[in-house]
Structure formats: C-alpha cells, structure tokens
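Box 3.1 A note on notation
Throughout this textbook, protein chains are presented in two layers. The first layer is the amino acid sequence; the second is a token string describing backbone geometry. Keep the layers aligned when reading.
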Amino acid sequence: MSYQVLARKWRPQTFQEIVGQEHVTTTLANALARDRVAHAYLFTGPRGCGKTTMARLMAKALNCDQGPTATPCGECPSCESIAAGNFLDVLEIDAASNTGVDNIRELRENAQYQPSAGKKRVFIVDEVHMLSKGAFNALLKILEEPPEHVHFIFATTEPVRIPRTILSRCQRFDFRLFTQTELLGRLTEITSTEGVAITAGAIELLSSLAEGSMRDALSLLDQAISSTEGELDEAGILSLYGLVGHEPYLELNQAILSHDPRAALDLVAELVGGGHDIVEFARGLVGNFRDLMMLRLDDSLRDRIEKPEVVRQKLAEQAAQFETADLMYLAQRAADHYVALQRTPQPRWLFETQVVEYATLESRVLLSEILGRLEGGAGASDPAASGGSGGRRRRQAAKVGPELSLPGGEVAREVSRGAATATPAAELRGAEPIPSPEPPSSAGMEIEAGSMAEESWKRFVAAVHAQNIAVGTCLVEAVPRQIDGAIELCFKPEHAFHRDQVNTTGARKLLALAAAEVYGPATEVRVMVAESTSKEDRLRSNTQEAIAPDQQQEIQKRAKANPNLGRLLEGLGGLEPAGED
C-alpha cells in the first residue's frame, strides 16, 4: 500500500478521538442516542478544524450495523467502506466545482432513491457557500421536506455567504480552532506512536506555526519528518520553512528600547543575509508587539502568549520598560507596515525605514507632561515611575533645544489635569486630621478664601482627584459648607451632571474616605443642590485653578511664569503668547 500522509492516517474514527470540539460531539452523540437526528446540519469554522471529519463520523454513525449509534463499531462493512471513502450511500460533493442549478437538481433526483447498501443516504456538501443563488434556491424545497432516508451535512468556512433561507433549515454547529495546548498534545501522541525522534521545542514550534489548524499541524509535521534523517529539532524546522526564531524579535525590541536605529538596521541585514522572508518577519512583528502589550497590561495574561516560558520571561522583562501607549502605537504601525510590505516590490528598503521609525520613536505623551518637563517641574519625574524606557525617552525629548527653568531656579509645583501632585488619600491616612471650626448650629458656614478651612478643602478635593480624576474634576464644581460635623457639597442647578457623578456609590465611598482623613473620622458628606454666594464662587474658581485647571488656563499660567516657555508657545503659533494681564 502506498504511503498515507499523517493527516489522513490519523483522522479520528470515533467521536471520542476528536479533541477540542466537545460542544459539537456531545450534542451530536446525544442526538444519535435519543434518535433526534436532524435532516440538515451546517458545520462552520476555519480550515483544518474537523468539519469534514465530523460529517463522515455522522455518516458512519447513521449507517453502522449497530446504529444509529454514537459509538460506531468501525468493523462492519458500512463503517469500513465509509472510512475508505467508497460507500455508495455517502456522497461527498465539492460545491466549488459543482456550483450550478443543474448540479443541485441532479442531487435532488439522487436523493429520491432508497439506500442501496446502508440505512441512510448522506450528502456531504463541502464549501457550500460557493453555490450559486439559483443552486441555493433549488435546495430549499428538499431541505424543508426531505425524504426520511436522507440527511444533508453542509460544511463551510464562510457562513455569512449562505442565504438565511438555507440557514433557517439547518442545525448549525460552529467549530473552533484548536489551542496550542491541544495541538501540542496531539502532535506528541502521534510522534510518540510513530516513533519519530523530535525534541519538545520542535513540537512546540510546529504547534505554534499551525495557528490552530490540526490539518496544518500534521502537514507541517509530515514535511518536517521528511526533511531530516536524525532527530528533528527547532533549528531544523526554522531552516526548513525559512523562519526566524524568537531571538531576532527580542533583539529588535532591545534596539527600540535603546533608541538604536543602527542595531535595528544590522538586524535587517542579518535577516536578508540569512535568506529569511522580510514580509513574514514583519507579520510576526505585529504579534511580538501584541505580546509585549499584554504583558505590560497585566502579567497574569502571560498564559495567553503561546511561546516557550523562557521567551515569555524575556518578553515580560522588556515589556516592563515600555509604556502601554507606545506598545499600542507600535502594534498599529506594524500592522499597517505589514500590509504595505505585501504590495511593495522592494520589501527590504521599505522595512529598513520602518524599523528606523520604531527605533527613533518618541513616547506618546500629553502636552501637559511636555510643559512640565520643559519647566523642569513635576513632569520630570523619576524614570522608574514613568515606566523605564518611556522615562528615558521623555528625558531625551526634554533636552531638545535650550533647557528651560523658572526664574531663580525655582521648581514649578502646579497640578496638571493628567497628574495631580496633591497628597493622595493613601498618604493622608497617617496625617493628623485638621479640626474644623465650630460652625453655627442653624446654618452652614461659608469658607473664607485664604483661610485654613480653604486649605483643608483643597486637600480634600486633591485627595479625591488623585484617586479618581473624573470624580475629582466634577468635585471642583462644588462649594463646601461646614455644618454640625458634616460637609455639604453644594452644586449649582446647572451642574446637575457633576452632582450625579459625585453622588454615585463608588464616588460616595471615595468622598467618605477622603473626608475621614482630612476632616476627621466622624465627618459626614452630603451632596445637594444650592445657589452659591460670591465668596463661594471665588472659592470654586480658586479650587479649580489649583486642582483641575482648564488646559488653556494652565498653559497661559505657566507661560507667564516662564518667559522662555512663553516665547516657545508664541513661536508655535497655535497658542496666544504669554503676557501680562
């Protein structure tokens, strides 16, 4: 007998042998056991996930001498003929080459005949979405009222192209791609049974290359086995398929972190010199940045990265040095670049410009942070607090042009909208609560501007703002009134939205915590609507300028305090020049 490829030799022959599609096998097995088999099924899903295999198993289960049964014997003439593909009552039709109305009419005529060798006639139509509109219309009647001895099983990778009139007459089952763990287990089982000398790393690489398709995994394994006489290892597979390992991606990540375009260009030269496909490397680069982003967001997402553990550890170390916004931008740019590389006649030249762009990329930062760095103030924070290389690149960006500082070397301490420098609530827990003045018993007491009570109010708002910027920004529209050991937060009627945001359950918990730390543990916080006096309006304005200033106000204030910055903004032309009131 001639050689049989692994994908055919290891095709599952029972429902129990199918892995990864339990939601389908369980339902179909129950239907067979309870004699509730439908006359038409639609199997959808990507290539190589078992749709045709499942259709043949259903045909075998329906025609087995012991059937219908969920456990066909595999030994009777019907089971053996169906497995061999020559059973007369199971017809497999390729819709891609039989798309016309005449083909479907012929199918309808054949469906009228009784089974000749088995119990049921089963029509398996593969790639059914390729049928023409007329062919689909010809199917409708027989699908709605089929003969008792006929079952239709349709398979497709594009269910969106099938008319709803057909979909409504079928029971649909969606097949999914296999996980790398499932592929790894199956390949390990097959190589062990076949006696193939292969390393664990090579099996892991093959399962990764298959991208969820069992048929692709077995085809890749078949080819890899033929490529060597000795033990099959990871290096041999990379060489066979002209692929690169994980190291080049790690090296490019380091070049980006080091801001070293020369190292990035040298890497491209090595890839080309080694005969590697630049376009395929660029495709993998999108996944590389995606993996870094996942690890930067949350280390618990490590299990979703289908790479060896040692590689995941190196990626995690590199991810900690990136900013999340930078990785999102890199992933988006890499995806755009991959599309462009597929169309260019000179992929190397274009890819070289792309890696230089990655290696010279400045961090994605807000204007308020740039202003802070230019002033040498709060924006120029500790590099460790700003996320490793992001901090390094930001410091480099801050050095462009003459260094700017406040007159007399004074450091700016303003609070920006994006990062409040007020003491957060967590640091206030150990502070002595500032006692509130004894208020009148009949009405709330207004807080005078410049008083100790105003400073306490600003500390309260800053603590909330540091924990939740949205709630803190809404809170600056309120004015406080102290009465009987409580703080009344008064909003104008036109600020109902801000009041509602401050009055949510989560916001109230945050307000209570901040009030206990600033005013004392027994302080109650009430939210209400009330008109404010002129003194309270001034307090509101002072608080807004200190805690959450408007962007234009913030820029103008800093420009007035720093002549060099004022001249820079004036030169940009997009902002009013700093000047005296």
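Residues 295 and 316 are 6 Å apart (CA to CA). Residues 180-241 form a domain with the Helicase, Ruva Protein; domain 3 fold (CATH 1.10.8.60).
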